[in-house]
């Protein structure tokens, strides 16, 4: 048995596929690459693949992580090359390395995520920075969003680690955000943008980094 940790990117070409469809894509690619992926036992076996933090539909990712359990050892470089040949445009394995089988699950290790968020706005950079400072100075920020199961109320401020302005050009401002992403909750960039007073949904949301607890 061998456990691999894989870093991958998902580009704009595939940003509108669901997490379930993405998992199906991985299973097909591994099968075509003849990767010896281990399956669970029982009535409905499923491949032992786990993604650190699924991307929302419409969000791209630059440095995503996935763990894969194999039935026998393989060359990480050979695995990366063979799987990449089976992937469509818009998704690519970037790194592959062996980890101990007893390594804690990825989901339990993720502590936060960093984003680049493009927003269409006529606000001046100074006004945006002022709004950010006001938000970061708050102890609490009661917020809510609607789900299929009804309204969910929560403290948005608790999910915000940091926000900063990357740059502003004519009509477009790019914000950097580090938001909590752990078992207690995950910050959503579009909710943070709305709380800052932007009325339009972000033009694009790109997750640039997942921060693992061990890396802090």
Structural account:
The structure is a single chain. This protein is α+β, with helices and mostly antiparallel strands and 216 residues long. The protein folds into 2 domains: 2-103, Alpha-Beta Plaits (2-Layer Sandwich); 109-215, 2-Layer Sandwich (Alpha-Beta Plaits), CATH 3.30.70. Helix content is 22%, strand content 41%. The chain has 5 helices and 11 strands. It has helices spanning 19-32, 76-84, 106-109, 125-137, 189-195, and strands at residues 2-10, 49-51, 59-70, 91-99, 110-120, 142-147, 150-155, 160-169, 172-182, 185-186, 204-212. Strands 1, 2, 3, 4, 5, 8, 9, 10 and 11 form a 9-stranded mixed sheet that branches. Strands 6-7 form a two-stranded antiparallel ribbon. A hairpin with a 2-residue loop joins strand 8 and strand 9 (172-182). The radius of gyration is 19 Å and the shape is elongated.
Set out the fold topology.
Elements: E1 2-10, H1 19-32, E2 49-51, E3 59-70, H2 76-84, E4 91-99, H3 106-109, E5 110-120, H4 125-137, E6 142-147, E7 150-155, E8 160-169, E9 172-182, E10 185-186, H5 189-195, E11 204-212
Parallel strand pairs: 3-11
Antiparallel strand pairs: 1-3, 1-4, 2-3, 5-9, 5-11, 6-7, 8-9, 9-10
